[in-house]
Design goal:
Elements lengths: L3 E2 L9 H7 L2 H7 L2 H11 L4 H11 L4 E2 L2
Parallel strand pairs: 1-2
Helix pairs in contact: 3-4
Length: 66
């Protein structure tokens, strides 16, 4: 599973921490489009946390925001 950073890659956090600290739209905008659409097709509707966890499972790269 890939990881998520909300400080430009300096530290990686738990998906729940990222959702709590960042606006969901910012997280979504930084996702790879193809992977995001794949997650949407596979599990939506779902919670933001479920979506992010699944995204990180399928992603080729860490999700770095900042």
């Amino acid at each position: 599973m890939k990881r998520i950073s909300i400080d430009n890659g300096y530290h990686f956090v738990d998906p729940a921490e990222a959702i709590e600290a960042m606006d969901w739209d910012v997280i979504v905008n930084m996702m790879d489009d193809e992977t995001r659409e794949r997650v949407h097709d596979e599990i939506a509707p779902c919670t933001e946390l479920e979506f992010l966890v699944k995204y990180l499972e399928l992603a080729d790269d860490d999700l770095v925001i900042g």
